[in-house]
Amino acid sequence: MSLIWAALLPPVLLWGLNRVLRRSLAATRERETAEPVGLPWRQVDIPTANNKRLFGWWIPARSGAPALVVMHGWGGNAQMMLPLAQPLNAAGYSLLFVDARCHGQSDDDSFASLPRFAEDIEHAMCWLQAQPESAAAPIGIVGHSVGAGAALLVAARNNEVAAVVSLAAFAHPAVMMRRWMRAKHIPFWPLGAYILFYVQRVIGYRFDEIAPVNTIFRVKIPVLLVHGRDDDTVPVSEAEAIFARRSHERVELLVIPGSHDDYGDIGLQVGALSNFLDRALKTS
């Protein structure tokens, strides 16, 4: 139906509609205003897809220590994940905080998407594997929101990932977008249906292929799903739905106080995170 409706529009109107959609769905760019003070960090540039460059902070622990790629959510940046830096580094983890394309201080690209977040995570992993301190170390991923969905997508297709911590992942992109459209008072028929069609065409993936509620079934490594009990952006029921689709018992669900963007003041939950990571990475 949405395709038929779109075909009836004059080409210039359809071009204009698509242009408006691109702009309204684009992530806001927030650049870092602070650094990992008090830690042995250095700024790094990481090559990624489409000949683009990612901005990152590399915070090494001892040579050979397990390493974590830390990825923010939509509209976020590496700084927003810094509450994890000191306690996880003190627990013995090397950390690579990165900005996804179109975010923070990384290069722009034609668009950002969950699959492109996943590409950026995979390129960050390749960078880690080329560093003397982490070349032979197990690698885990910590991701928030879209970054969490991307982490699960990477783990579903890349056997070099040893563990994932998913913070506030949504269950399905279509459900998330329909929530956004309701908040914007966009009717599903015909406009909302066309938006879903258009976004899938642009990113080159069907939502069902990349939905965490589906990718979790293909993930064979330890996963910790962390979700704020008071999250009104992504209800905790979505974490429960992802958890219900797991294919093994090494997937754990941790519901904590807090909302979506503070994800339960995750700095206070580092004990639970490091306990999970110790079991998943330091014994692998």
Strands, helices and their partners?
Layout: H1 2-7, H2 11-25, E1 42-48, E2 52-59, E3 67-71, H3 85-90, E4 94-98, H4 114-129, E5 139-144, H5 146-157, E6 161-167, H6 173-183, H7 188-203, H8 207-210, H9 212-215, E7 223-228, H10 236-244, E8 251-256, H11 270-281
Parallel strand pairs: 3-4, 3-5, 5-6, 6-7, 7-8
Antiparallel strand pairs: 1-2, 2-4
Helix pairs in contact: 4-5
Strand content of the residues, in percent? 15-25%
Count all strands and give the number: 8
Q: How many domains in all?
A: 1
Q: Can you give the mean pLDDT? A: 92
Give structural notes.
The protein has 284 residues and is of the alpha/beta class. It has one domain: Alpha/Beta hydrolase fold, catalytic domain (Rossmann fold, 3-Layer(aba) Sandwich). 39% of the residues lie in helices and 18% in strands. The protein contains 11 helices and 8 strands. It has helices spanning 2-7, 11-25, 85-90, 114-129, 146-157, 173-183, 188-203, 207-210, 212-215, 236-244, 270-281; strands at residues 42-48, 52-59, 67-71, 94-98, 139-144, 161-167, 223-228, 251-256. It has an 8-stranded mixed beta sheet with strand order 1-2-4-3-5-6-7-8, with helices on both faces. Strand 5, helix 5 and strand 6 form a beta-alpha-beta unit. It is globular and about 60 Å long. It starts with a helix and ends with a helix. The mean pLDDT is 92.
Summarize the structure.
The protein has 284 residues and is an alpha/beta fold. It contains eleven helices and eight strands.
